[in-house]
Amino acid sequence: MNKRVVDPVAEQPDYWSEACSYLMKKDRVLRRLIPRRADDVLRPKPDPFATMARSILGQQVSVAAAQRIWERFAALAGEITPQGVLRLKVDDMRGAGLSARKVEYLVDLALHFDGGQLHVDAWPSMDDEATAQELMAIRGIGRWTAEMLLIFHLAGPMCCRWMTWGWHAASASIIFRVKP
């Protein structure tokens, strides 16, 4: 069981310093890279609904496209809450750049939050797998998206059971630009 204390205003997760020390001891490239990026820490995103909504909108599109769609959607919604999403018209969301499928996913997400089907307050003390399973019951939320919430909302340490090709490619591009 991975219990964690989440403090959205904390400067860094409670495990951060220990994790950085460990990585610097184990890897000669990270030993040089981590001190250069000492101000970059994982800060939890405080709103789980908005975090998940943004994750859904960003699926299978470029970062730039995801940002444009998010900006149009946020302007349309005004408030990014389950109730705010449920008040929107499908045609208006489609006009903001959301596909029909993403509209379905956002509405299902909003219904799960609004209907109390999620144990958001218990997530910090729940096992990572139990939290992921709860999230994967929502249309459009698969393992990868659920694990991103564990990292970016709950500031969990390495919770992913597997890593994507994108993660490997990004890591390699960072690591091999730094001279050991």
Low-confidence stretches are: none
Tally of helical runs: 10
In sequence order, what are the helices and strands, one letter per element?
Answer: HHHHHHHHHH
Looking at the structure, the CATH topology of the largest domain is Endonuclease III, domain 1
What is the total tally of β strands?
Answer: 0
CATH class membership of the largest domain: Mainly Alpha
Shape: globular
CATH architecture assignment of the largest domain: Orthogonal Bundle
CATH-wise, what's the superfamily of the largest domain? Hypothetical protein, domain 2
Radius of gyration: 18 Å
The secondary structure category is mainly alpha
How would you describe the overall organization of this protein?
With 180 residues, the protein is mainly alpha-helical. The chain has two domains: 43 residues, no CATH class; 105 residues, Orthogonal Bundle (Endonuclease III, domain 1), CATH 1.10.340.30. It is 57% helix and 0% strand. The protein is built from ten helices and no strands. The mean pLDDT is 83.
